[in-house]
TrEMBL record, chain B:
The lineage of its organism: Bacteria, Bacillati, Actinomycetota, Actinomycetes, Micromonosporales. Pfam families: Aldedh. Gene3D superfamilies: Aldehyde Dehydrogenase, Chain A, domain 1. Residues 42-267 form the Aldehyde dehydrogenase domain. This is Aldehyde dehydrogenase. The keyword Oxidoreductase applies. Coiled coil: none annotated. It comes from Planosporangium flavigriseum. GO terms for molecular function: oxidoreductase activity. Keywords: Oxidoreductase.
């Protein structure tokens, strides 16, 4: 498959029919197999020094997120402070990868982060994406202008599910162009894609269109990120790099709340895509409450006693 | 830990296979086995094998504290009247299982004569504490006289999550005497049952599970006190520690030191010679309550 893909990749988007033929020509996903493999990798036991390493890596991979209608600049500033110094009592605790906010909150966050952590903004009328393309592009441009260096866009699921792949492709293309230097994360919203086959197709579609990251979910739809869906996406980025030489990152988001879950995802990354992806540049967690649990586990490792929610901030 | 087989069936019972009970933990309203998969044999006072009980690990203790913490808001937020009704209900359910408890207590202590009176005393004690539920605040709260135009009101409120090491000898009455006063004011508890005599405690949790007591208010662990208690004593999300059943003075000291890290309330071990059948007082309830004093302007 690899050779065919490499020769055809520049050609597949020449027409809707060609794109459909390519996406439907991707091998199908064995659903039971994917579920079982993800479950099996979740049983690995990560202890002591390996666990301490994994916890710190997971903290460095967090996109600390607040996407609420009730967000205020004050709340976003507090979140930025936490992102840079997650555990005020322990200077050895690393910063998180990025802060992820709505476009209106980007001006509040940009001066505080000032390059010390990435600033991601959801755009393109997150989470539904049901606005005209011109509005989506304006949304992206304003976020980038205000200082966001990563853009999380949602794909047009309606178009994808009704088979209008080229429309989705061209939308991603246009958004990528509007991003300029900013990294583009493409949210597939796997909870609405119904099958793993669709997840694989949407992953390839996004990568061919120029995504720097593919992201599972908005966090507003259940189910959000699940291990098997992430497994399928990790396979897609691995195969894509083998075919084209370009490495694309993966970001599961939504529903990852415990350090234990986060470590299971790290195992999944290492065993599926490989150690190259075990870096904040190539794998992220979209999460809010996860960070507190990681910090509590970290404290438990360093002090030898269980910590509690009274010792971390309420976000 | 090798599970032991119970003795061979006696002739008169041989016609029917015995349906033996699995004694499990009680965490968050559910009955899980230990996450460690371990168990240990429990023997009667005469040394006969009775059952295998779950041998809880530190992770079971961790899960139990988490369950207790998440149950706290609902239980402490319930009205005192409602908590009292649930405690009465527990006594009613206990009464219905009186014969079973007498058998289990007698097997544990080897004293068939006093078992009935111990079970009766345990049931009566639930009722006694149930009655205190909506009275403790009015008897021990106060309207304080202050030199200014203010109302000054003190009310006792629950401390939070209480970890309890249950008395070692008195398997039911002792357990009830430490659990009931902790939950009456609205605390939630993680209790380590008597190491040698855990079976009546596990049966008690079956009563709790069917008495409208919200899941997580009482969590029961069975196993080695010396293994589990240090994790509870050092846990930063536990607010108070009742060492009633700790027999090893050195361990009790270590637990108290660990508890000091986050200023837990600590009740020291109760001497083995003490008589749990004696009339209780309100001190155990008040130990696990914090006095809140509010000032409010008067008049205008």
């Amino acid at each position: 498959m690899t050779a065919t893909v490499a020769s055809n990749l520049s050609e597949v988007a020449r027409s809707d029919a060609a794109l459909r033929a390519f996406l439907h020509g991707l091998p199908g996903v064995d659903q039971v197999g994917a579920d079982q493999r993800a479950a099996m990798l979740g049983t690995r036991s990560i202890k002591t020094t390996a666990k301490a390493w994994a916890l710190d890596l997971a903290i460095r991979m967090v996109d600390l997120t607040t996407l609420e209608g009730a967000d205020t600049p004050g709340k976003v500033r507090a979140l930025c402070a936490k992102a840079l110094r997650p555990d005020p009592a322990d200077p050895s605790c690393p910063s998180v990868a990025a802060v992820c906010v709505y476009p209106a909150m980007v001006p509040a966050a940009a001066p505080l982060l000032a390059g010390r952590a990435h600033l991601a903004s959801v755009a393109t009328a997150f989470p539904a994406g049901q606005v005209p393309l011109s509005v989506k592009l304006a949304d992206v441009e304003s976020a980038v202008r205000d200082g966001a260096d990563e853009i999380d866009m949602v794909i047009n699921r309606g178009a994808f599910l009704s088979g209008r792949y080229l429309e989705v492709f061209e939308e991603i293309r246009a958004v990528k162009q509007a991003c300029g230097d900013a990294h583009l994360k493409v949210i597939l919203e796997t909870g609405e894609l119904a099958t793993y086959d669709n997840v694989r197709r949407a992953s390839w579609l996004a990568m061919i269109a120029g995504a720097d990251f593919i992201k599972t979910s908005t966090g507003k739809v259940a189910p959000a990120a699940t291990p098997p869906v992430t497994l399928v996406m990790l396979e897609a980025v691995r195969d894509f790099r083998a075919a084209t030489g370009r490495q694309v990152g993966v970001k599961p988001a939504g529903g990852i709340r415990t350090a234990k879950d986060a470590i299971k995802y790290l195992v999944l990354v290492n065993e599926t895509a490989g150690a190259d992806w075990l870096h904040p540049d190539w794998f992220r967690f979209g999460a809010s409450s996860l960070l507190n649990d990681l910090l509590m586990q970290r404290t438990r490792m360093s002090t030898g006693r269980y910590s509690g929610p009274n010792y971390v901030t309420l976000d | 830990m090798i599970a032991e087989e119970p003795p061979a069936e006696t002739a008169e019972h041989a016609a029917r296979l015995a349906i033996r009970k699995t004694y499990k933990l009680f965490i968050g309203g559910a009955f899980p086995r230990s996450e460690s998969g371990r168990s240990y044999p429990v023997r009667s006072a005469s040394g006969d094998f009775m059952a295998n009980a779950a041998l809880a690990s530190r992770k079971d203790a961790r899960d139990a504290v988490r369950a207790a913490r998440s149950a706290f808001a609902k239980w402490s937020g319930a009205t005192a009247y409602n908590r009292g009704q649930i405690l009465y209900r527990i006594a009613e359910m206990l009464e219905g299982r009186r014969a079973q408890f007498i058998d289990e207590v007698a097997a544990a202590s080897g004293d068939g004569v006093s078992a009935a009176s111990e079970v009766d005393a345990a049931i009566d004690r639930w009722v006694w504490y149930a009655g205190w539920s909506d009275k403790i605040a009015q008897v021990h709260g106060a309207a304080n006289p202050v030199a200014g135009p203010y109302f000054n009101l003190s009310t006792p409120e629950p401390t939070g999550v209480v970890a309890i090491v249950a008395p070692a000898e008195s398997s039911l009455l002792g357990l009830v005497s430490v659990v009931a006063p902790a939950i009456v004011p609205g605390n939630t508890v993680v209790v380590v049952a008597s190491e040698e005599r855990p079976l009546p405690a596990v049966t008690l949790t079956e009563v709790l599970a069917t008495s409208d007591l919200p899941g997580g208010v009482v969590n029961l662990l069975t196993g080695r006190v010396a293994e589990i208690a240090p994790w509870l004593a050092s846990h930063m999300d536990v607010d108070a520690l009742d060492l009633a059943g700790v027999r090893d003075a050195g361990l009790a000291t270590d637990l108290e030191i660990a508890a000091a890290e986050n200023l837990k309330r600590v009740l020291r071990p109760v001497p083995a010679s003490s008589d749990w059948a004696a009339d209780p007082d309100v001190q155990r309830m008040l130990t696990f309550m914090e006095m809140k004093t509010a000032w409010h302007p008067k008049g205008i």
